[in-house]
Amino acid sequence: MTTLFDILGPRMVGPSSSHTAGACRLGYVVQAILGGMPDRALIGLHGSFAMTGEGHGTRIAITGGLLGHRPDDERLREAETEAAEKGLEVEFRSVDLGDDAHPNSATFDVTRGEERMRVTGCSIGGGQIRVQEIDGFEVDLSGSLPTIVVVADDVPGTVARITGRIAERGLNVATVRVDRTGRGERALMTIETDEDVPADVLEELVGQPWVHWIRNVHRLNA
Amino acid sequence: MIRSFAEWFEQAESLEIGLAELVERREVRETGAAREVVRKRIEDALAVMRRAVEEGLQESGTSPSGLTGGRSGRLAADGPRLLGDDFTAMLARAIATLETNARMGLIMATPTAGAAGVVPAVLLTLAPVRGWSDDRLVDAMLVAGGTGIIIAERASIAGAGGGCQAETGSAAAMAAAAITWLEGGSPEQVATAVAFTIQSMLGLICDPVAGLVEIPCAYRNASAAVNAVAAAEMALAGLDFPIPVDQVVDVMGDVGRKMDVRFRETALGGLAATPAGQDIAARAGMTELVQLQRKGRTKGEDSARFGPS
Question: In this structure, what CATH number is given to the domain that contains residue A31?
Answer without folding.
Answer: 3.30.1330.90
